[in-house]
Amino acid sequence: MCAALAKPVLYTYFRSSCSWRVRIALALKGIAYDQSPVNLMKDGGQQLTSEFQTVNPMQQVPALKIDGIILSQSLAIIEYLEETRPNPRLLPEDPKKRAQVRMIAEHIASGIQPLQNLSVLQQMGEKKLEWAQQCISHGFKALEQILKETAGRYCIGNEVTVADLCLVPQVYNAERFKVDLTAYPTICRINKALLELEEFRISHPSCQPDTPSELRA
Amino acid sequence: MAASKKPVLYTYFRSSCSWRVRIALALKGIAYDQSPVNLMKDGGQQLTSEFQTVNPMQQVPALKIDGIILSQSLAIIEYLEETRPNPRLLPEDPKKRAQVRMIAEHIASGIQPLQNLSVLQQMGEKKLEWAQQCISHGFKALEQILKETAGRYCIGNEVTVADLCLVPQVYNAERFKVDLTAYPTICRINKALLELEEFRISHPSCQPDTPSELRA
């Protein structure tokens, strides 16, 4: 089969919030793809194999094999999809609104998620849960303030953007770590509205090919 | 008149994230004012309620420009790229643009946040060891990526957003005494970039808020 026609391959873990961002983007843009699951827990962590290291030297998911290249870093992947498959758009036309979308996306993707990433939590030992709750709460407190200014139905106005792709998986993480979300009504409202959308549901951790049976919806 | 006011960058001399934006502003020839935020003094000036209205995340950098305030260095830089497109900091080709963003994100979310001030404060005595570990792990991967993509700079021979992230991260690595001999490509690129005027005038050693004992 001609390489140019091969479906994209997403290296993904069902519960990886970063992978979920990309799954949502692929769904929203109607891009058919294959999943190559990477189990972050099994066998000491399949992301640590030398085989996967050639896919992504940082040994993390997601990674996307597409158009003859392999990309890592969820936001870099999503920006590439946006530039090469521009419809429907995930970034507004107006540069100031685009900047706000990216600000919120980066706030989550570099300001919150990495601090509660698997490898960091493994360092925290017993303090793991407390640490995760702290990082997420601190980040959500700021995000709630930002969203009060920018949000309509979704993070920025009434169209789904990259910010929304980052929000829902981070709320999922917050729930996993039992963060009290009552102080963040805007975040909760937006999350609820987004989870009504087909693309956010079919990409959900509870129904992926690699979701363990005990966690399936 | 509000429209003709210079942009204001909230910055700390030694913040690597602030430095990325200082380089971008210099490369694009954008005149701006600095509003220094001392992350150590008075318990941390980023924690004041005044600064919280500038950036609710209570971090630098933040940029007041065109009537809005933006935080997150990469979001700021993409905004500058879109509104002041010359000289360009992202290639034309989408695949190369993706590689630039991949490297930038690798540093900006994969390495730097893990050795950010607030995380290090949690680590207590293990602070130095932790910072070295995060940076080494990230640089090991980055060295492998750059072997594929680099020319004179991170991606080919033009300065891109990836380079704006690299130099400040190497500066952090040196601050935390990371052994850089295993990363020859990173070192070579860093050296080449530091020969450029815009990387030098934005350097932590010569900012308005650089303490006298640390001035070049």
From TrEMBL, chain A:
Tell me the GO molecular function terms. glutathione transferase activity; maleylacetoacetate isomerase activity
Pathway field of the UniProt record reads: Amino-acid degradation; L-phenylalanine degradation; acetoacetate and fumarate from L-phenylalanine: step 5/6
Q: Which UniProt keywords apply?
A: Cytoplasm, Isomerase, Phenylalanine catabolism, Transferase, Tyrosine catabolism
The record, for InterPro entries, names: Glutathione-S-Trfase_C-like, Glutathione-S-Trfase_C_sf, Glutathione_S-Trfase, Glutathione_S-Trfase_N, GST_C, GST_Zeta, GST_Zeta_C, GST_Zeta_N
User: Residue limits of the GST N-terminal domain?
Assistant: 6-89
Q: What is its main location?
A: cytoplasm
Cellular component GO terms held in the UniProt record: mitochondrion
Record's subcellular location: Cytoplasm
GO BP term, pick one = L-tyrosine catabolic process
Query: Can you name this protein?
Result: Maleylacetoacetate isomerase
TrEMBL record, chain B:
In which family does this protein belong, per the annotation?
Answer: Belongs to the GST superfamily. Zeta family.
Q: Name one GO molecular function term.
A: maleylacetoacetate isomerase activity
Which pathway, per its entry? Amino-acid degradation; L-phenylalanine degradation; acetoacetate and fumarate from L-phenylalanine: step 5/6
Q: Which reaction does it catalyse?
A: RX + glutathione = an S-substituted glutathione + a halide anion + H(+); 4-maleylacetoacetate = 4-fumarylacetoacetate
Q: Please give the cofactor(s) recorded in the UniProt entry for this protein.
A: glutathione
Query: What name appears for this protein in its UniProt entry?
Result: Maleylacetoacetate isomerase
Enumerate the UniProt keywords alphabetically. Cytoplasm, Isomerase, Phenylalanine catabolism, Transferase, Tyrosine catabolism
Do you know which PANTHER family this protein is assigned to? MALEYLACETOACETATE ISOMERASE
Instruction: Report domain GST N-terminal positions.
Output: 5-88
Its annotated compartments are: Cytoplasm
- Extract one GO cellular component term from the record: mitochondrion
Which InterPro entries does this one have? Glutathione-S-Trfase_C-like, Glutathione-S-Trfase_C_sf, Glutathione_S-Trfase, Glutathione_S-Trfase_N, GST_C, GST_Zeta, GST_Zeta_C, GST_Zeta_N
